[in-house]
Amino acid sequence: MKIFSPLYARTMAWSRHRRAPWFLGGLSFAESSFFPIPPDVMLAPMCLANPRRAMWFALLTTLASVAGGVLGYVIGYFAFDAIEPWLRETRYWAAYEQAVAWFDTWGFWAIFVAGFSPIPYKVFTIAGGVASMALAPFVLASLVGRGARFFLVAGLMAWGGERMEAVLHRYVDRLGWATVAVVVVGALIYSL
């Protein structure tokens, strides 16, 4: 059953849309402070669809993400008391507590690691504000960590380019169903 092929084709068409960079910038900004979907889901197909602009997309994603991170910092610094009850009720509370512990131990490096890794960066931006981390090191760590991640994604997608796009299109249904199977097996193991 070919469910994933049409979704893949639609995603590639959207990634070539003239306003796609605006959407990428908005998503990157929002993800760094409050939105749960990482910008990589837009960045990767946009770089595949237009490899010559991949580095521009990575720069746009990095700058918008860091700007959103500063908003997260401001939220943590000025408004944490207002969001704390909500945050306690979400799945992010444990990550927030871990982020605070990391700040106590590593400071600058906590933001760098969160910026590069799949750890929820937004939790660390808010924790950075709560911890009153100095803003200049916060921004520097965010630029380096987020930039390394997004330029790596963009570089790999640009390197693969049209060849990778064609291969993915050919195997996307198999990959999609394999991913579903892994998620189901993981959920079953987790529930046991």
Structural class: mainly alpha
Secondary structure: helix percent: over 70%
SSE pattern: HHHHHHHH
The total count of strands amounts to 0
Number of individual domains = 1
Low-confidence stretches: none
The share of residues in extended strands comes to under 5%
Radius of gyration: 18 Å
Give the termini separation.
30 Å
> How many separate helices?
8
Q: Name the shape in a single word.
A: globular
Biggest sheet overview: none
Rounded mean pLDDT is: 85
List keywords for this structure.
single chain, 192 residues, mainly alpha, 8 helices, globular
Plain-language structure description:
- The protein has 192 residues and is mostly helical.
- The chain has one domain.
- It is built from 8 helices and no strands.
- The chain starts with a helix and ends with a helix.
- Keywords: Membrane, Transmembrane, Transmembrane helix.
- This is YqaA family protein.
Short characterization:
With 192 residues, this protein is mostly helical. The chain contains eight helices and no strands. Helix 1 crosses helix 3 (40-49).
What's the helix and strand layout?
Layout lengths: L3 H12 L4 H12 L8 H10 L4 H35 L4 H14 L1 H9 L4 H10 L4 H57 L1
Helix pairs in contact: 1-3, 1-8, 2-4, 3-4, 3-8, 4-7, 4-8, 5-6, 5-7, 6-7, 6-8
Protein name: YqaA family protein
InterPro entries: DedA_domain, VTT_dom
Keywords: Membrane, Transmembrane, Transmembrane helix
